[in-house]
Design goal:
It is a single chain. The protein is built from 6 helices and 20 strands. It is α+β, with helices and mostly antiparallel strands. It starts with a strand and ends in a 13-residue tail after the last strand. It is globular, with a radius of gyration of 22 Å. The longest helix has 20 residues. Helix 1 packs across helix 2 and helix 5 runs parallel beside helix 6. A hairpin with a 4-residue loop joins strand 4 and strand 5. A 6-stranded mixed β-sheet has the order 15-16-17-18-20-19, covered by helices on one side.
């Protein structure tokens, strides 16, 4: 099928969603298991427990005795209660990372209690559309809420009443939560499941049911292998406890340009592969041999590829050994192997 299609289903008893682009799996979301650490987006009332000396952080107590790491906790004292939001999944054996910059995200807008002002996504360039959206904001009285507001690109072309209704709901939720900072540690807003995230963050597209019928299971089965074939070359993506190692090979191509060709193919394929596999943290690329003069072309291709990726990724740069490093936000849990079996 040409174009975009969103497929909803359940895997391992957990809600899941797949984004198909021209018949190819472009993105995949799977809700975490019930015993998983708190997911990104969850909002808690937490209590400051103990400072991490020399690191500027604070261990926070969450409900049920769970802990979280709050960086930038300068001046925060033991026993103080604050509202925090989970920003990323925890590495095995570590506490989840949280921030006090709580936001409330919808399909069309984001309410930002800690950042005042009304802003419209830079992707919305049509002046008439920007004026329409501002009129909707004024109509719901968002300026008097005391919160900041961002109109997302998903608001383009959406019905006025739909946008206004979501704005009113988000502002009401933000008001209720921000006024509830006192008391014992408690979960105030749970993280959205995979299907709710798909509706919120993916482009408007037809929604259908059934992974097997629409080719999603076959695509997921292909992700069980660490190897991705790219013409004559190949890409190996191997998660370890410390980092994600990516090895690029030229295969049977022994031409002078083989290294650059394979590395450029890696740059184009990597964002989608990391997204589908749910991989984040430190990522180290062991690239195919190529002259140093070709590094700039590789960096440009990598930067262009990640520009369209929705997950925050920092291109850190080259190591003395000639590897290239990235740092990627842990917005998802690693995709289990054998999921489509």
């Amino acid at each position: 099928m040409k174009g975009l299609q969103i497929v909803m289903d359940h895997l391992a008893g957990r809600p899941a969603a797949a984004l198909m682009r021209d018949g190819q799996l472009d993105d995949f979301l799977l809700s975490p298991p019930e015993d998983a650490p708190p997911a990104p987006g969850a909002i808690f009332r937490a209590t400051a427990d103990r400072p991490l000396k020399g690191q500027g952080g604070m261990i926070m107590t969450l409900p049920g005795g769970e802990t979280a790491l709050f960086r930038g906790a300068k001046g925060l004292k033991h026993g103080v209660k604050i509202l925090v939001q989970v920003t990323s999944y925890a590495e095995p054996g570590k506490a989840v990372t949280v921030t006090d910059r709580v936001i409330f995200k919808g399909r069309h807008a984001i309410v930002t209690p800690g950042a005042k002002g009304i802003n419209i996504s830079r992707q919305i360039r049509d002046e008439e559309e920007r004026v329409r959206l501002l009129d909707i904001v004024h109509g719901v009285g968002a300026e008097g809420s005391g919160f900041g507001l961002i109109l997302r690109s998903g608001a383009v072309g959406a019905d006025d009443a739909e946008i206004a209704g979501e704005l009113e709901d988000l502002l009401a939720l933000a008001s209720a939560v921000m006024a509830d900072a006192d008391g014992a540690p408690e979960l105030l807003v749970d993280a959205s499941d995979a299907q709710a995230l798909a509706w919120r963050d993916w482009p408007d597209a037809p929604v259908v049911e059934g992974f097997e019928v629409h080719g999603v299971l076959d695509a997921l089965a292909g992700l069980d292998s660490d190897e991705l074939r790219m013409g004559d070359g190949s890409l190996f993506i191997e998660p370890t406890r410390a980092l994600v190692a990516v090895d690029v090979n030229t295969g049977g191509d022994f031409s002078a340009a083989a290294g650059l060709k394979a590395n450029l193919a890696c740059a184009r394929a990597l964002p989608r592969q990391l997204r589908l596999r749910g991989l984040g943290g430190q990522i180290t690329l062991d690239l195919a041999p190529m002259p140093k003069k070709d590094r700039r072309a590789f960096e440009q291709a990598l930067r262009a590829a990640f520009k369209a990726d929705p997950i925050e990724t920092a291109l850190v740069g080259w190591t003395p050994l000639g590897h290239f490093e990235l740092q990627r936000k842990r917005e998802r849990l690693p995709l289990p192997k054998g999921l489509a079996a």
